[in-house]
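Subject: Carbohydrate ABC transporter permease structure
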Amino acid sequence: MISTQEKVFNYAILTAVAVGVLFPVAWIIGVAVSPNPTGTLDLSSPHWGNFATAWAQADFTQYLKSSLIISGGVVAVSTVLAVMSGYAFGVLGVAGEKWLFPLLLVGLMVPMETIIVPLYYDFLAYGLTDTYKGIILAHTGLGVSFGAFWMRAAFRAVPPALTESAEIDGANSWTQLWRIHLPIAKPAVITFVLLSFMWTWNDYFLSLIMVSDPGHQPMTLGLGAFSNRYAVQDNLLSAGAVLISVPIVVLYMFFQRQFIRGMLSGAVRE
């Protein structure tokens, strides 16, 4: 039984953490609508037009198109690979699984910075730099290890009795995947989709190395170019940063329950 003092202490800690997290966000939003370009918070006469000005001056329309193509492609390919590999390792049992799965997980322990130089030259040799398919392939390859681990754990949490009953009824492996495992693991799949989209959308370093053509650069690089041109206009820079974060916030608001269920369910158990 939790005492009243413990409850007060817990709520005080949670409140302090929430304030520490939300204060910078509120400050950035405040600066974004401030008429003062020096970054001073001035809410006496909010300029909501700063968002439209930042969008137009940074030419975010083209960057948004690139971000949607890259993030959408990565999410689609990564999700298919994650489901297939997770089902193979978690349910079907592939030959040499005890060696192949740990080898696959090595990708989780290798920092991207250690492989980015040889990766760039490999992609350059095959003509994959400055292309959508190249950056999508790079993001997908770097995330396949986590996807296999995540979905394997989710599928292993499905009660074996359901699989056995389906086998008795004559269901093959594909039917079991679509009719049993995927519906049960739906929160884990949605969580993986959101994480994959968020990581790809927020990426700056990989895109900076692989994409130099402004016509194929995502919004994060667009904000970087915008900051170089308008370094003294902090209110417009803040408005641009807020615009980039909007899709992530909107997706989380729509799928927050599924996201939390995926994080707390059997998707994190072995």
